[in-house]
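Duplicate of #3305? Posting structure anyway:
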């Protein structure tokens, strides 16, 4: 949507669909095999999900980014000055930027290889070349866009398409008469093209119907291709998806509208909403569907100054644009219904934990919010090592700093219990007054 929200739904085994909290003002999204990358309006980049090859480890001082791409387990960024930065798995040299690669206007990341489109309309590619996907056709010029995943597809200025690389399932066999194309995408073993008239054509592997365009699909303004599914964004801001749906990536959330951009990779679908924030939905602990962009949750405890081990009440309030949420809350394995005011009162004993993970679900059982509440339990005076008991360990800590002042190297400010800037007998007395007091 034009607000920059993002929604995601799919397998979430590496947390690639659990959006970082407070991620807003997003203008572009890129989904790798098991990691996700977002480009913010300020030109900075955020990444999350699988990080075994440091594909989510953003290079320090990376700024002024204008485009991003995510491969199998590497990430690429295009800067405003036309230079390219890449990080993550480099087993095929996909993160080594070749000398002379400058004046770049677009990027793509495939399965262990990188593709760039230069300002002069030519393409360069490097990395894994097992299917010849990095062997650019000699006569290929006047290119508008390029994308690849085991094979590479290029859109020429005249609206025709060129494809090369892995053709095991006919993904390089361009449909006869394909012209007037304005956008192209590449899945794992299928490709799709968006024509100027708003219709879509797809070809290649079709084992899950990823190339079977839904009947009546028209007025499309953008397309995306995942590993085995396809996605279309319509002019009215709605989304259509088809193909493999084993992880719910084609289950478009009810009420999803005002979408401005889409992306897909592996078995993931992403959309950007118009306010620049990110939300997600799915069937495997994927959180927050787009219709909950304005979800407000408040969690408090009564009494506020609770002692360790005392009974207390957690108070949970949930609403959307001021309307109470119908649903449930959950702490641990226990579920509690939200009442007509969107509120739940939960009795707890603080001896169990200092931190409580709270989940909130809508009436359909979709997880839409997850947050932690840390209790503000008063500290026992004299519990210097924070083990919830005043004992000989605390006396030993004071003894090590005894008769010292701030200018002494052995001085330990936590031992100055009376605040006189000297560790002395009065501090020992303070500990003795609470000796053997415990919250355990």
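Output from current build:
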């Amino acid at each position: 949507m034009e607000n920059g929200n993002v929604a995601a739904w799919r397998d979430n085994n590496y947390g690639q669909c659990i959006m970082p909290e407070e991620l807003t003002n997003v203008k572009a999204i890129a989904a790798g095999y098991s990691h996700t990358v977002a480009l913010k309006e300020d030109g900075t980049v955020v990444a999350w999900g699988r990080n075994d090859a440091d594909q989510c480890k953003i290079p320090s001082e990376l700024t002024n980014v204008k485009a991003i791409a995510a491969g199998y387990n590497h990430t690429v960024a295009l800067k405003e000055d036309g230079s390219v930065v890449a990080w993550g798995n480099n087993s095929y040299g996909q993160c080594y930027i070749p000398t002379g690669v400058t004046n770049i206007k677009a990027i793509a990341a495939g399965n262990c290889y990188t593709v760039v489109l230069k300002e002069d309309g030519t393409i360069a590619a490097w990395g894994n070349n097992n299917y010849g996907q990095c062997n650019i056709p000699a006569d290929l010029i006047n290119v508008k866009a390029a994308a690849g995943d085991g094979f590479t597809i290029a859109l020429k200025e005249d609206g025709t398409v060129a494809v090369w690389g892995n053709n095991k399932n006919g993904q390089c066999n361009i449909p006869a008469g394909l012209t007037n194309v304005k956008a192209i995408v590449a899945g794992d073993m299928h490709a799709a093209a968006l024509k100027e008239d708003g219709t879509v054509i797809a070809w290649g592997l079709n084992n899950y119907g990823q190339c079977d365009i839904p009947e009546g699909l028209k007025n499309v303004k953008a397309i995306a291709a995942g590993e085995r599914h396809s996605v279309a964004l319509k002019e009215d801001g709605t989304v259509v998806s088809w193909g493999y749906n084993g992880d719910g990536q084609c289950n478009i959330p009810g009420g999803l509208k005002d979408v401005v951009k889409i992306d897909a990779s592996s078995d993931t679908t992403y959309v950007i909403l118009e306010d620049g924030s990110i939300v997600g939905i799915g069937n495997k602990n994927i959180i927050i569907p787009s219709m909950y962009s304005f979800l407000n949750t408040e969690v408090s405890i009564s009494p506020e100054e609770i002692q360790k081990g005392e009974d207390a009440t957690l108070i949970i309030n949930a609403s959307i644009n001021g309307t109470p949420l119908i649903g449930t809350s959950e702490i641990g394995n226990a579920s509690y219904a939200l009442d007509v005011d969107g509120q739940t009162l939960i009795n707890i004993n603080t001896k169990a934990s200092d931190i409580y993970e709270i989940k909130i679900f809508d009436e359909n059982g979709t997880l839409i919010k997850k947050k932690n509440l840390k209790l503000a339990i008063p500290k026992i005076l004299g519990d210097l090592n924070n083990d919830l008991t005043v004992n000989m360990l605390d006396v030993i800590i004071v003894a090590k700093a005894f008769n010292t002042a701030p200018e002494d190297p052995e001085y330990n400010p936590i031992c100055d219990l009376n605040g006189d800037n000297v560790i002395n007998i009065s501090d020992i007395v303070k500990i003795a007054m609470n000796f053997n007091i415990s919250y355990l």
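Confirmed duplicate; merging threads. The chain has two helices and 29 strands. The chain has three domains: 3-289, 295-374, 379-440.
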